[in-house]
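Annotated sample (chain length 79).
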Amino acid sequence: MRYLFLLSMVLLTGCVTFSWVLPLSNGDCPVSHEVKGNADSGYYHLPGFLYYDKVHAEKCFRTEWEAARAGFEKAGGEH
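Output written by the structure step:
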């Protein structure tokens, strides 16, 4: 379903952009993009989550919305 959404956005707007950056060399995200996206699990983690400091990010997002739109799901059991 998420791929259909992305395809629709490409067809409607001509492009899809998400604001993400690569993590720092230690796997942490820069202050400007604190939402951690973990490609292995497909989950994103927000600052304050139980395992946030232990997660090695593959992509770092500015907002939760951007992480979700990029296909990541909110880590379970976190609020």
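Annotation: The first strand starts at residue 20 and ends at 21.
Annotation: Strands lie at 20-21, 35-38, 43-45, 59-61, 73-74.
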